[in-house]
Amino acid sequence: MIAAPEKNNEIIEANDQISSNHLKLIDATIETIAARGLADTTIAHVAKKAGVSQGYANFKFKSKENLLLSSLQYLSDEYKSSWQSIFEEKNLDPIDRILRILDNDFSEKIANRNKISVWMAFYSEVKFRPSYLNICQHQDEIYSNQMEKLIKELNHLTKQTNFTPKEISESYHSMVDGLWQRILFDPKIYTNQFCRNIVLKYFKSIYVDEKRFS
Amino acid sequence: MIAAPEKNNEIIEANDQISSNHLKLIDATIETIAARGLADTTIAHVAKKAGVSQGYANFKFKSKENLLLSSLQYLSDEYKSSWQSIFEEKNLDPIDRILRILDNDFSEKIANRNKISVWMAFYSEVKFRPSYLNICQHQDEIYSNQMEKLIKELNHLTKQTNFTPKEISESYHSMVDGLWQRILFDPKIYTNQFCRNIVLKYFKSIYVDEKRFS
DNA sequence: AGTTTTGTATTGAATAATCATTCAATATGG
DNA sequence: CCATATTGAATGATTATTCAATACAAAACT
User: Fold this and answer.
1) CA–CA gap between residue B134 and residue B62 (Å, rounded)
2) Domain boundaries, chain A
3) Dihedral angle at the C-alpha atoms of B128, B50, B55, B75, nearest 10 degrees?
4) What is the mean pLDDT of residues A173-194?
5) Which residues of B touch A37 (CB under 8 A)?
6) Strand D: which nucleotides have any atom within 7 A of a protein Cβ?
7) How large is the angle between the packed helices A165-185 and B192-206, nearest 10 degrees?
């Protein structure tokens, strides 16, 4: 990670010298998208929220597109680091690690309506802006692979050998995405607790004898 | 349904007299959103694709917003009628009915990239346009309730009595939504067959002894 | 210390492009 | 000839982008 510099050079100039205005603008972008939707997010709104002039925002990021891209990258990095640290933790039983991942995926920090609405906004444009896809896809793959490995470690707990670790990992991932979407739809019903519980029961149905999934 | 007239009057004038241009425009709207994304969909594009003038499109639907709304309604109705007919079918064993629903949810007609990208486009704006939400939410509820009833009929097939029908129905629904999203992301991996299979294995993990889920 | 110079950071008004919406004019068919 | 359907050019609003002007701060010089 430190040895190999990431080649994001088109999106943010250099990691070592991100100005405070840079961050203020990215924050303001995310807040604006969450508050008004991507379609209604203008440079003027973002600049105002960040407390800088409109011209400045454009000058710093070269274009609105680039500002949006940088904001998505920021969000994506934030999510990554939250699960990365769980995967890297030592001396953790596989079951407990999965429980930690589940907690993280439905924590207030990650699964709140503002962040989800920003994710959705970008996701919905993925088919038309390959650059959006690039930012998410790579991390997604790493996450899926690590999850798959983790589930392999639980193989002995279930007799359903035809439900492969890859498939279990995919279905977990899909279910989480779907539940996030539903939090946006109907937050009264789909509280974080409710969603977490649904996934927990799903695990329970696979690993019937594991008490910690109850 | 027939006795009580639905109060959609703001969106499409009257069911009995939808002109062919009306439908052409709705089709063109869906195609345009699928091809260019909601953000890049202009009345001019839609009108051109529909083969009418720009002014006409606006005149007929009163506003762009209304055209979008009508298109979402159309899509929503289309989906509804496809699962509705499965629920209404007589002399169908619960398992077979679920299999039919699963087939439908990952059929080419329903789960293709164009339609999914239109759904996503609207979903992502749901937080900011209550009218979008209204169109989807009601049907969603009916679908969920019917699914829940269906799953209740399978209660005797599983020993996992703490995974309630409602929860199973919710998790199915979420998983489908999540998989649709992934079809958009990476259609090479997430083929309809692949997705259907994931959900099938999920059912298998709950109803272990039911051979038809294998 | 105070003044001038120089380079950078920031502004905000002007520009140009895009688009929804309007409506007077025209076509169409009964 | 009338009524209705349809056109497409004009309008006005919105908004990303540009850039000359200005603020600011740090050196450089007296």
Assistant:
1) 20
2) 13-62, 64-213
3) -30
4) 96
5) 124-125, 127-129
6) 6-10, 14-20
7) 90
Of the two residues A138 and B122, the one the predictor is more confident about is B122
Please say whether the beta carbons of B126 and A185 come within 8 A. Answer: yes
User: Do B13-62 and B71-213 have matching folds?
Assistant: no
CATH number of A13-62: 1.10.10.60
Query: By the CB < 8 Å criterion, does A166 face chain B?
Result: no
**Alpha-carbon dihedral A33, A79, B171, B139, rounded to 10 degrees:** 10
Residue A183 CA to residue A162 CA, distance in Å, equals 32
Q: Which CATH class is domain A64-213?
A: mainly alpha
**CA-CA distance, B98 to B119, in Å (whole number)?**
23
Check residue B161 and give its pLDDT: 81
Residue B43: which of B27, B25, B16 has the closest Cα?
Answer: B25
Residue B4 has pLDDT above 70, yes or no: no
Which residues in chain B, range 29-88, keep a C-beta under 7 Å from any nucleic strand C atom?
Answer: 40-44, 54-55, 58-59, 62-65
Q: With respect to CATH, is domain B71-213 assigned 3.40.50.720? A: no
Environment class of residue A91 by beta-carbon count within 10 Å: exposed (0-12), middle (13-18) or buried (19+)? exposed
Interface probe for B, chosen from A68, A76, A175, A182 (most Cβ of B below 10 Å), is A175
Region B74-99: mean pLDDT is 96
Q: Are B166 and A166 in contact (CB under 8 A)?
A: no
Cα–Cα distance, A146 to A143 (Å, whole number): 5
